[in-house]
Amino acid sequence: MGRGLWHSLSTSGLLLGTLFFAASLTPTLLPRSFLTQGVLSGCSLATGYGIGVFASWLWAYMELAQPKGHLLRVAKLAAATGCAVVAVIFVAIRVNRFLPRRVSSVIGVIAAAALFWSVISGVLFRVALRVADASFQEYDELIEPETEPPTDALKTGSSASLLAWNELGRAGREFISSGPTREDISAFSGRRALEPVRVYVGLRSADTPEVRAKLALEELKRVGGFERSVLIVVTPTGTGWVDPAAIDSVEHLHHGAVASVALQYSYLASWLSLLVEPGYGADAARALFNEIYGYWIALPKDSRPRLYLHGLSLGATNSEQSTDLIEVLGDPFAGALWSGPPYSSRLWRSLTDRRNPGSPAWLPQFRDGSFVRFMNQDGEAAGPDSAPNASWGPMRVVYLQYASDPVTFFDYRSFYREPEWMLPPRGPDVSPQLRWYPVVTLLQLTLDMLMATTAPIGYGHVYAPAHYIDAWIEVTDVRDWSPEEITRLKQHLSRP
């Protein structure tokens, strides 16, 4: 069996597979555990080996000269030996960061041998499938602790509500039952506060997005949402989740005078929706916006709330698509805060590609900044040298994004070319040691995207309350907080 396996190995596959394996050990956007590094290196090795096998087949198909006999055996032995040496060196270098040199060298040899054998025998592939299957099964079976329906008649899911508590979904019940109360907000700020209004319509509340959107409007009217000064149409992530860091912060900033309404359109993880069907959920977001906006424009302008849009991750993509900006020019909504916009977000992509010359792809500057601005953990993008930032126009759009967020900066084109966000100067949270490698960088970013929500808060795809506060101040024009109070609020909301 061993002799047969040896003869079946591809020399070009071994060479290219090892190069991919070595490249996979270099830094990328997010730190990796030993498990995720093993998965990435195994996939990189298998991909390189597969490309090498295809190249060898194509060479033979074109009837070009090939080494045979003794020459072939020598070439294969030299390739295998060289591959093993390269693999051991790269593995030992990486492990040496954590362990003594000789210990790491021994571990490197064992790990390299095990990895090569796992890929060749198919063991790694089967293990990866089992791990993925177990993860999805565990998530699917996860049920939140039972919580009682709210007793306040003005809460969604109460006995007076148009929506049943058990039909809101896990994320919906979490959204309604969490967040600061009027007492919480007033106790922190020392000022009078209102009870924030939150409305959520679950996927099981009605059969179609249109009917669910009508229920959302009627529930919002019932609980007095249009009587608040700020109204936010929220598009949740693929699972239906609404980031509490985003909503809690804006409710504090406006002393509870905020109403937010969200419509669930899926229970799948956002990354899965992005990979399988990037446009999933846009119809639901559009249905909700049409209902809310249609009612909002009929209200007197001097007494209606300021209307904003918000979405995180896949929610940002779908929120972008919920309206055509040209259609609302006659009576525009006040603005939008879109955080962690995925690579597939059309408006984000267009604005980034058309950014001012000299501004980096990871924090663009678009024209004079009167319509849209980009922010990260360090604040806004700098204005153009030729002119200072203009004042805001009638609509304020802010993108909150981290340079280390692979959901935002994943790009299929990194398969064959270096992404622009890797060019200097790089983002403050991107390693200067990160390098681009054909094919391998795409695999690295794919794994990073799957692990994006495991990053520390304020990095990757985990957005911090402090940065949401800065973004909401820009979008909603908050003026009644002193710098000292803002700092204290950031500290308050950043506590576990």
What this model shows, in words?
The protein has 496 residues and is α/β, with parallel strands linked by helices. 47% of the residues lie in helices and 8% in strands. The protein has 18 helices and 8 strands. An 8-stranded mixed beta sheet has the order 1-3-2-4-5-8-6-7, with helices on both faces. Helix 13 links the parallel strand 4 (306-312) and strand 5 (335-339). The longest helix is centred in the first third of the chain and has 28 residues, at 34-61. The termini are far apart. The relative contact order is 0.09. The model is unreliable at 1-8, 104-109 and 128-143 (pLDDT under 50).
General form = globular
Helical residue percent band: 40-55%
Structural class: alpha/beta
- Flag low-confidence runs: 1-8, 104-109, 128-143
Order of SSEs: HHHHHHHHEHEHEHHEHEHEEEHHHH
The beta-strand count equals 8
Short description:
By secondary structure, the chain is α/β, with parallel strands linked by helices. It has helices spanning 2-8, 11-24, 34-61, 69-95, 101-121, 123-141, 169-177, 182-189, 209-222, 244-253, 270-276, 282-296, 314-320, 346-353, 406-409, 440-450, 465-476, 483-493, and strands at residues 197-201, 230-235, 258-263, 306-312, 335-339, 372-376, 379-380, 396-400. Strand 6 (372-376) and strand 7 form a beta hairpin.
How are the secondary structure elements laid out?
Elements: H1 2-8, H2 11-24, H3 34-61, H4 69-95, H5 101-121, H6 123-141, H7 169-177, H8 182-189, E1 197-201, H9 209-222, E2 230-235, H10 244-253, E3 258-263, H11 270-276, H12 282-296, E4 306-312, H13 314-320, E5 335-339, H14 346-353, E6 372-376, E7 379-380, E8 396-400, H15 406-409, H16 440-450, H17 465-476, H18 483-493
Parallel strand pairs: 1-3, 2-3, 2-4, 4-5, 5-8, 6-8
Antiparallel strand pairs: 6-7
Helix pairs in contact: 2-3, 2-4, 2-16, 3-5, 3-16, 4-5, 9-12, 10-17, 17-18
